[in-house]
Amino acid sequence: MRQIKHPAIEQVELTDIMYALSDPARMEIVGRLAQAGRQMTCGELDLNRPKSSMSHHFKILRAAGLVETVIDGKEHLNSLRLAEIEQKFPGVLYAVLKTIKLP
Amino acid sequence: MRQIKHPAIEQVELTDIMYALSDPARMEIVGRLAQAGRQMTCGELDLNRPKSSMSHHFKILRAAGLVETVIDGKEHLNSLRLAEIEQKFPGVLYAVLKTIKLP
User: Fold this and answer.
1) pLDDT tens string A10-29
2) I want to staple B64 with a disulfide (CB 3.0 to 4.6 A). Which of A65, A66, B16, B23 is the partner?
3) Which CATH class name applies to A9-95?
4) Where is the HTH arsR-type domain (chains A, B) (predicted)?
């Protein structure tokens, strides 16, 4: 199975998390992953945007340490790194998630 | 006295706040204003960066609704819109502020 690289939580900076959350599409992905509380495929998280645009958003979410993606056959399974982020930056992501109104 | 325009709190979007906090210099300005708990001049908040760079950062902080600037003679007095932001997005800014380590 091909692996996708993710930053260790020690390398994650709050400014990168803030940047990742500065886009409505990425905010929605994070909100939907939090609401589901499980791994979701890219298809499930499709926001009716071009595939290249969604790939870009997932790349930024992974680089910021917010999302972990594992490859399972033809599927990309995405999950929120909520527990790790919460431990490093207590309360930040939970407070943000409370404000998200999903469409 | 010349006035500087600020968005009403109703117009403030969380994604704009996240973007404003995605830069270490702007994060530091916000942290210092919160720590001081009073109006501060641009001189007091100088981060040893070019004046044009600082102006740019203050412009983004104002546009995001985080900072209010009033002009008093030759001084620009800046303050954090903490109470308004807290009311609209409870807990977000406080959680972020707790993580800021000022130099």
Assistant:
1) 999 999 999 999 999 999 99
2) B16
3) mainly alpha
4) 6-100
